């Protein structure tokens, strides 16, 4: 479960980091990408561990809110799934051109 949350936060961060403040971006990079502890981040910024924790939790909530509204990560997942199906259809000699074109149209609709 923790790995799933970390992976999700990394993706959300990739999609929405431009919407964050410099401090939010920095805390999230250190915590999720560089795997620093709350204590390490607090020490380097000369703030309390609780302040770092609160900032990260608020930022996580903001990222989830952005995703609820913009759905960039969800659409990315849908596109990846359709691309996998299309790749398999191209490899599969029994798939028809209509099957492949239907997947291409599905891909267009995700945008």
Any overview of this molecule?
81% of the residues lie in helices and 0% in strands. The mean pLDDT is 94. With 111 residues, it is an all-alpha fold. The chain contains 6 helices and no strands.
Properties at a glance:
81% helix, 111 residues, 6 helices, mainly alpha, 0% strand
Topology:
Layout: H1 2-16, H2 22-33, H3 38-45, H4 49-70, H5 72-91, H6 97-109
Helix pairs in contact: 1-2, 1-4, 2-4, 3-4, 5-6
How many helices? The count is 6
Whole-angstrom Rg: 19 Å
Tell me the overall shape. Answer: elongated
Reading the helices and strands in chain order gives: HHHHHH
The biggest beta sheet reads: none
SS elements, strand count: 0
Please report which band the strand proportion falls in: under 5%, 5-15%, 15-25%, 25-35%, 35-45% or over 45%: under 5%
The N- to C-terminal Cα distance equals 29 Å
Q: Specify the structural class.
A: mainly alpha
Unreliable stretches covering 5 or more consecutive residues: none
Overall mean pLDDT: 94
> Helix proportion of residues, in percent?
over 70%
Question: What would you say about this model in short?
Answer:
This protein has 111 residues and is an all-alpha fold. The protein has helices at 2-16, 22-33, 38-45, 49-70, 72-91, 97-109.
